[in-house]
Design brief:
three-stranded antiparallel sheet; 146 residues; 4 helices; single chain; alpha+beta
Length: 146
């Protein structure tokens, strides 16, 4: 993470995206293989277009997976997320209004969810597919009380 920590700042918790987002690319590969196996009229042009689509999606997912980080320190919350258009979030504990976790049925199975960070200034940041979102929420609560 390119954000510099302050001299008296210590990292309490780090979070990243769940590996589940990699399944998107594997799903597109499987669909392409299924179409090519089932259809005898599967055109070479369509195959090349599908392969190009899968490669672009794989790059997007890899950038998003490797570039998303959430760091909880004893003084603030730092987050970087996004694939092509990156957003950097720095929220001081005094400015944090609330944190919400949304975890669907599949998210509970694979332990991922969306964390929404609300500030007192009315801004909110939603980061989806965060691995172990409740551990992140607990780390935020612990850091705010220190």
């Amino acid at each position: 993470m390119a954000i510099k920590l302050r001299d008296d700042e210590q990292i309490i918790h780090r979070s990243w995206l769940s590996y589940v987002i990699l399944g998107e690319t594997f799903l597109f590969i499987a669909i392409g293989l299924l179409f090519s196996a089932v259809s005898s009229s599967y055109d070479d042009t369509l195959s090349i277009a599908w392969l190009l689509f899968v490669i672009i999606d794989a790059v997007k997912v890899a950038l998003r997976y490797s570039g998303t980080r959430v760091v909880v320190t004893n003084q603030r919350l730092l987050a970087k997320y996004g694939a092509l258009f990156r957003e950097t979030v720095v929220v001081e504990w005094d400015d944090l209004s609330s944190v919400f976790i949304n975890q669907g049925f599949v998210g509970r199975w694979f332990n991922y969810g969306t964390i929404t960070i609300n500030t007192k200034g009315g801004r909110y940041y939603a980061i989806s597919t965060i691995y172990q979102p409740y551990e992140l929420e607990q780390a935020i609560a612990k850091a705010r009380t220190q």
